[in-house]
Amino acid sequence: MTARINSMTPPFTDTVQSVFDRIMPRGVPPLALFTMLARDPRLFDKFMAGGLLDKGHLTLRQREIVIGRVTAQCGSEYEWGVHIAFFATKVGFTDQEITSLVHGTANDPCWHEPGERLLIRLCDALHSDCQINDLLWDELTAIFSEYALLELMLLCGFYRTVSYLSNGARLPLEPFAARFPIPA
């Protein structure tokens, strides 16, 4: 697949290169998503400012469950695959959990923690109708702080936007990234 929007090619400006050096693992070239956005300094800065990949109100595992579920729901194999490649081992995802993020439900037996089941239900609710019903909200507030809930909603929205970008621009899959699992 050929991207619909060309990426910036090296050599990058000092400002852009410093961002890539900070966010990319050593030896991994910058992602096509980033080099595409880097063509426009304003859009690149705004995008990077909204990333939510810093230490916030969620654990790394909670964050990656949300990102994995949202990008899978949006059909963004590009972004889903990058996050699975970079973070699945770090957060201890099992093969069953990885498959469930794409093809499963919150009731899959691989999800043992009630909070993790709630995260999937939250992603599903926001994806289906952009709402959180009162029952789900009450369950979420029993586990997550108000700040964490705000972060969760922002995270869902941000990665829906990332999915729009990767799908709309038809970004080619990164060579190192995971692919959607085939359902059992």
Task: Please characterize this protein's 3D structure.
It is a single chain. The protein has 184 residues and is mainly alpha-helical. It is built from 9 helices and no strands. Helix 4 (60-73) runs parallel beside helix 7 and helix 4 packs across helix 9 (146-168). The mean pLDDT is 95.
Question: Gist?
Answer:
The protein is mainly alpha-helical. The protein has helices at 14-23, 32-37, 41-49, 60-73, 77-91, 95-103, 114-129, 134-141, 146-168.
Radius of gyration from the alpha-carbon trace, in angstroms: 17 Å
Q: What structural category characterises the helix and strand content?
A: mainly alpha
Using DSSP, what is the number of strands?
Answer: 0
Tally of individual helices: 9
Order of helices and strands: HHHHHHHHH
Straight-line distance between termini: 27 Å
Ranges where pLDDT stays below 50 over 5 or more residues in a row are none
Global outline = globular
Helix content: 55-70%
What is the average of the pLDDT values? 95
Largest beta-sheet characterization: none
User: Percent of residues in beta strands?
Assistant: under 5%
